[in-house]
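Translate sequence into structure tokens.
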Amino acid sequence: MRKRRLRAPSPALVVAVLALFVALGGTGYAAFKLPKNSVGTAQIKNGAVTGSKISRGTLDSLQGASGPQGPAGPTGATGATGARGATGATGATGATGPQGPQGIAGTARAYALVFPNGTFTHSKNVLSVTYGGTGDYCVELDPSVSDTSAVALVSLDYQEDTTLISNGVAHVEWNGTCGTNGMRVFGWQVTQGASSLSIAPSDEEFAIAVP
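Result follows.
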């Protein structure tokens, strides 16, 4: 039988096999064959090492201490005043409260408001007022109010008296009994003179009450 001769591979086939070998295992080969400490900054591409490739401890060691705080910046200009808001609605008027109870009746037995000419109003148990001359009044009381068992309280009506006229003040006072069953009241005008006070009878409006 005739032996069959094997043909030698062609150069093209050899190149193709070598290329396939490099593509499948060339990277691993290169990694296993790199000498120790042979990779430096020259072999690392710029931007190739990212934060995710560096350990947390290494990152912390690369961070320096915080610098001192800088000075405060200048105060900014005041902003423009905002527009005024709309006026709120007027609140509802509250309900009127109930009327309070009537006060107790007064205890004065007699009272009246007496005018400078001797007429009177707003009275109780006052029968008449006799004008006896400048500043002299006799207030006659009802017989139920004895002038011998009572005193009178007398007060000026400051809306009608002569206080502050001619640099003076008005004054009224109770001065005992008068008439049939009356209380006597005198009115005065006290004026500041150059070196002393002058006191003169004066017609004054007053209120009188007998407790």
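Note: The radius of gyration is 61 Å.
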